[in-house]
Write the structure tokens for this entry.
Amino acid sequence: MIQQFREILAEIDAAGIVIDTNGTTEPNGNLCSISITNEQAAGLSEDDVICFMYDAAHRFDALRAAKSPQLPMTFSCWVDDQAGQLRFSVVSSVSLPFGFSVRRCGDAGIVAMEFINCPWLEGIQLSDLRDVGPDDDIDCTGSDSQPATLNVFCIALPLVHNDG
């Protein structure tokens, strides 16, 4: 496990969990993000990232159980392409706190590979940007003229443990 993964897991343990059933403070209060370099990404496997995601979900689940054992929550994990980060949070509301189209993924590998292969892990290159004027016609919907959709891996908490 890379150092950044260990540090984030320790931060989760130290910070605890924000529980607000109105949903106003949970998304940002439980928000974590991790950045890695292209070199680190090259050394990671899909399974490395998936294991980290599940470790984070387990940490949040333990904190949830200690603070409010009967409250179901959702662990969500996604890639912020523009920031080049893997982000995750825990919320108790049914709907995910995003202001745009979201696709819930049951396959953690989709988000793990998006993170490993993110072209902007070390920032967006200035050469990739262009000046836009007020009269420019900008297609913000993506190359296929469909609204951009964010893949979000979700796990229901409490986690079900099979001990047998």
